[in-house]
Design a protein that fits this description.
Helix content is about 15%, strand content about 25%. The protein is an alpha+beta fold and about 160 residues long.
Length: about 160
């Protein structure tokens, strides 16, 4: 088993967000993003990385939150083996980025459509509470369209962020 605390996310929405997979409407690729919130939307990018999102809206509205980074908490040796990294790497280097965290946590398209509250394979649970002043907000990264939207959220100055915010 592996587990980590989510420390960085980016939001994507069908309305006014040209970077969202749902900006072009409903397709077979993005269908899960139009499901009820709580479902797992996994896609493959650049022919090499999986990215995992949590669907966030009511059924019929295409929106999700990309999990960009987690702080590894459980199963570090498993994560190192999955990432093919030795113990000389810091735990944060295992999961600081959407592709890295999917590889470390064993997330792939087989989890597409699972519900994060009921799936026996992948879950999101409450872990810690943070004050609003502990959360940083900024523009999304790694995209070329609608990147000015301040929809990237992260725990301020956390060492496991994919990039400083």
């Amino acid at each position: 088993m592996t587990a980590g605390m989510i420390v960085e996310v980016e939001a994507y929405h069908q309305d006014g967000d040209l970077a969202s997979h749902t900006s072009i409407g409903r397709t077979s690729r993005n269908e899960v993003m139009f499901w009820e919130g709580g479902h797992c939307y996994v896609y493959f990018i650049y022919g090499m990385h999986h990215c995992v999102n949590v669907v966030t809206e009511n059924s019929g509205t295409g929106a999700a939150v990309l999990i960009r980074a987690v702080e590894p908490l459980v199963g570090l040796e498993v994560m190192q083996r999955r990432r093919r990294l030795g113990s000389r790497y810091t735990p944060c280097e295992l999961t600081a980025g959407p592709g890295k965290l999917c590889q470390a946590l064993g997330i792939n398209r087989s989890l597409l459509g699972h519900h994060f509250m009921t799936s026996p394979t992948v879950r999101i649970e409450r872990y810690k509470n943070f004050r609003e002043t502990s959360i940083a907000c900024g523009p999304r990264i790694g995209i070329s369209k609608s990147k000015e939207l301040p929809w990237r959220l992260a725990i301020k100055d956390h060492p496991c962020l994919s990039r400083p915010i």
